[in-house]
Specification:
globular; eight-stranded mixed beta sheet; 20% strand; eleven-stranded antiparallel beta sheet; 565 residues
Length: 565
């Protein structure tokens, strides 16, 4: 197995004679044209196939290979050790280095389970936490961060020998790193990703739980929004903070303005944009309705248990929040699939791909009947409802047909379209931008004024109640401070904790949610009104300095004198 350079990176390193310039222009034009035509497949680009032509055409700007490498190495994936997960780790969120001293930024909701496991008799989930010094940072046993250090195309070897053989060889050749084979395009392409593993992760700072989740379930997946959903962790190695001077994102407290180009680097969990129309209809008519019925039953039972005692409520709180999030997400996915416009886009895209396959005799022979096979399997799944063994067998057959469709898609479009999310690192481009909603306009950012207004408009009733510390400091706070804001970047679950950066790779936001319209993007991407929702860096600094007495941490982020020492 040898390192394979991506086409765009190889082209950029070529000498620029007239012929090379012409070839580059043709490649960029083709890449841009397909990206525009297949926009329903979104903008979750892999770093090995970053669409520099699309960036140039859409924004009159393109990143250098050094820019891409720095963004990749400053980005992290958050997970925990798990015997049941492939490779021994289960990953669930994104994160990033944000100082030279191993400081990591992610979401409060990504770290709440870890906090609950180490808080003991304290209630850090409710009251917040700030270490104040290196020696007070609390180790989170079993939790890890990974940093993607190398990518390699292994499609041919995987198809010949299988993923296990590839992993075994990678581990023998490079035991210093952990490795994962990533199936892209439903198995149309395979990449071997190699990671630096950080397994000494410590808690540095977290806000009050009610500040992080202000608005609770009613505001979840909604905007305008006032969620202070951040946590700061730190990676340690050999008894001291990791040296991250070479690769971390700088901080831009003032954030981005409306219309600015921004990027999200993170690990979207799963999308189904290459799934067929028949599969989407099965999900719409059978899978999601059944799952929602099950989830409602679970929540009813847990809420009854939580009422038994304060201790029981504290124990169940993280799980209830997680399942409420899943409930609302599944409802959003279902609503998206019920949208005739979304299904029409899906139908059109599928017809165009099948037509492209049909024009090529070799592709038609190899893949032409895959869509019909998938449709037949959906009907068999309906008939097998309740029979677990039959359902598992049908799902295996379905995966084989999905791989055929993925191979066909990759043969037609290559890397000019992004693959579905796989909890692997992606970069997504977009613009800071408000949108039309409910017959009016949603502003691109909210402020502290709105937070206090929402508290008072609901008379401080939960979940619109502010912690007393915020009420006590109201007169000292700058109420014009931006709080949350929106952009058109392409995200999904797993992107929680992702940094949002500008062209200079400065932090301008922290992804923690999307609006309700974004949930339909699970199967068809559309950025007309769907938006990412981020925590603004200004409110993070304002709260650290004035609410949490964490000026030292704010100095580290803003890299002021003696920060981190």
């Amino acid at each position: 197995m040898t390192q394979t350079l991506d086409r765009a990176a190889t082209t950029r390193r070529s000498p620029f004679g007239a012929a090379a310039t012409a070839l580059l222009a043709l490649a960029f034009a083709a890449e841009t044209g397909v990206a525009q035509e297949r926009k329903e497949l979104g903008r979750m680009w892999t770093f090995e196939a970053a669409p520099v032509g699309w960036f140039q055409q859409a924004y009159d700007w393109q990143p250098s290979q050094e820019w891409l490498d720095h963004a990749r190495l400053s980005s992290l994936r958050f997970g925990r050790k798990s015997k049941d997960a492939p490779g021994g780790f289960a990953f669930f969120c994104s994160a990033s280095f944000v100082s030279p001293h191993g400081l990591i930024m992610t979401n409060h909701h990504c770290s709440r389970d870890a906090m609950a496991e180490v808080q003991g008799k304290a209630d850090w989930l409710k009251d917040g936490f700030y270490a104040g010094a290196y020696e007070n940072e609390v180790k989170l046993p079993g939790y890890v961060m990974t940093q993607l250090v190398r990518q390699q195309d292994v499609t041919k070897v995987v198809n010949e020998l299988g993923q296990e053989a590839v992993l075994k060889q990678a581990q023998e050749q490079d035991p210093a790193h952990t490795h994962q084979v990533i199936a892209l395009y439903q198995g149309g392409n395979y990449q071997l990703y190699s990671f630096e593993l950080f397994d000494d992760i410590r808690l540095v700072c977290a806000p009050h739980g009610q500040s992080a989740h202000f608005g609770g379930d009613p505001d979840n997946f909604c905007y305008p929004r006032w969620g202070l959903d951040f946590t700061f962790l730190r990676a340690w190695k050999d008894g001291k903070p990791v040296d991250s001077k070479a690769h971390h994102f700088a901080w831009r407290t003032e954030g981005a303005k409306e219309g600015d180009l921004v990027f999200v680097t993170g690990n979207p969990g799963r999308t189904g944009r290459l799934q067929t129309l028949a599969q989407c209809e099965f999900l719409r008519d059978h899978f999601y309705p059944q799952q929602l019925q099950r989830i409602h039953g679970m929540l009813d039972g847990m809420y009854k248990q939580a009422k038994e005692s304060a201790e029981k409520e504290k124990e169940l709180r993280p799980r209830i929040l997680g399942i409420e999030n899943q409930r609302k997400a599944f409802q959003g996915y279902l609503d998206g699939l019920k949208n005739p416009r979304i299904m029409a886009i899906k139908q059109k895209a599928e017809a165009e791909l099948r037509a492209a396959v049909a024009k090529n005799e070799e592709l038609q022979t190899k893949y032409g009947d895959a869509w019909d096979q998938i449709a037949q399997l959906q009907q068999k799944k309906v008939e097998a409802a309740g029979d677990r063994q039959k359902m598992m067998k049908l799902q295996q057959e379905e995966q084989a047909q999905q791989k055929r469709i993925g191979e066909a898609c990759f043969a037609v479009y290559g890397t000019s379209i992004p693959p579905d999310a796989t909890m692997s690192l992606r970069i997504s481009d977009g613009l800071v931008k408000g949108y039309a909603m409910n017959g009016t306009l949603a502003p691109y950012f909210t402020t502290l004024y709105g937070l206090f207004a929402r508290h008072h408009e609901f008379a401080g009733a939960h979940p619109f109640d502010l912690p007393q510390a915020w009420l006590d400091k109201e007169k000292e706070l700058d109420l014009k401070t931006p709080f949350n804001f929106v952009a058109t970047c392409d995200i999904i679950g797993g992107n929680s904790g992702s940094p949002m950066i500008d062209k200079d790779q400065r932090i301008v936001g922290l992804i923690f949610d999307g609006n309700i319209e974004m949930l339909g993007n699970n199967y068809v991407f559309d950025d007309e009104v769907s938006r990412t929702v981020s925590v603004h860096p200004a409110i993070i600094i304002e709260s650290l300095r004035k609410i949490y007495a964490a000026g030292k941490l704010a100095d580290e982020l803003e890299q002021k004198a003696a920060a981190g020492k």
